[in-house]
Amino acid sequence: MPEEDISKYLRLDKLPHIWCPGCGNGIVLHAVLRAIGKLQLDQDKVAVVSGIGCSSRSAGYVDFNTLHTTHGRAIAFATGIKLARPDMTVIVLTGDGDCAAIGGNHLIHAARRNIDLTVVVFNNSIYGMTGGQSSPTTQPDDIAATAPYGNLENAFDLCELARASGASYAARSTTFHATQLPLLVEKGIQNKGFSFLDVITACPVYFGRMNKMPEAVDMLKYQRDNARNIKQWSTMTDEEKGGKFVIGELHNKPAPEYTDLYAALRARLKENK
């Protein structure tokens, strides 16, 4: 899709953005807008919801029905929108801390319900806006402001968490794989149910500098060198998988969607009056 085709989806008067040089958030947002454009969605029937964090500033830059909510609550607000207006396409743009830490409970229950939301996680493995604290996706031994001698905690596999909770679609990509990314977002939007996209992105200012990747290109090389597509992944041993991660469509299993079930229940209750 030509670059000029997405300009109508941007609030140009809100630019330039506040993201740091080398941040991958713009690549992720561009992929989301390309997917919306490819699907030719009605701009007035798209809602974009975000929480708090660097990535959550995205909602302010796009010209849809937008909602910038409190920390960790983006999925909860999005659930309310979808229940009130099931005809709308509701997309959540969130960070790994916003989604999986304070918002973790909302994530697992929205996935459990299989409500028709598309959640795109800007996963930079750090709290970038508030000083570089470790997040639920910071890998063991990685350095963070709150883990100066190395992180001791295990990290969530967010796609596996969403799948195990009941999501009917889960995928992962990176900002290096910029051609693949909008295709996965497009499939997530098309899925009638809870769609979860884990996007590995870069924060060179905090995560990169503290973990020997001081330049944005270093972080892109990390993504390139450590990502494995699902076909490769399936043939690798556990030892070979160490330090690597799988990308692509990881789970696609259609299931009854919550707002459809809710509408059917209301219809039955009306008939029984």
Model description:
- The protein is of the alpha/beta class and 273 residues long.
- It has one domain (20-271): Thiamin diphosphate (ThDP)-binding fold, Pyr/PP domains (Rossmann fold, 3-Layer(aba) Sandwich), CATH 3.40.50.
- Helix content is 38%, strand content 16%.
- It contains twelve helices and eight strands.
- It has helices at residues 25-39, 58-61, 74-84, 96-100, 104-113, 158-165, 180-190, 204-210, 216-226, 230-233, 238-241, 258-271, and strands spanning 46-50, 65-68, 89-95, 118-123, 169-174, 195-200, 227-229, 245-252.
- It has an eight-stranded mixed β-sheet, sandwiched between helices.
- α1 (25-39) packs across α7.
- The model has no long low-confidence stretch (mean pLDDT 95).
Brief descriptors of the model:
alpha/beta; 12 helices; 8 strands; eight-stranded mixed beta sheet; Rossmann fold; 273 residues; globular
Summarize the structure.
This protein is of the alpha/beta class and 273 residues long.
* Total number of distinct structural domains: 1
The CATH topology assignment is Rossmann fold
Highest CATH level, the class: Alpha Beta
N-to-C span = 52 Å
Report the total helices. 12
Global Rg: 18 Å
Instruction: Describe the sheet with the most strands.
Output: 8 strands, mixed
Residue-averaged pLDDT = 95
Helix-strand category: alpha/beta
Give the proportion of residues in helices. Answer: 25-40%
CATH homologous superfamily descriptor: Thiamin diphosphate (ThDP)-binding fold, Pyr/PP domains
What would you say the CATH architecture is? 3-Layer(aba) Sandwich
Strand coverage percent: 15-25%
- Strand arrangement within the widest β-sheet reads 2-1-3-4-6-5-8-7
Order of secondary-structure elements: HEHEHEHHEHEHEHHEHHEH
Globular, elongated, flat, extended or rod-shaped: what is the shape? globular
Low-confidence stretches: none
DSSP E strands, number: 8
GO molecular function, one term: oxidoreductase activity, acting on the aldehyde or oxo group of donors, iron-sulfur protein as acceptor
Organism: candidate division WOR-1 bacterium RIFCSPHIGHO2_01_FULL_53_15
Pfam families: TPP_enzyme_C
Protein name: 2-oxoacid:ferredoxin oxidoreductase subunit beta
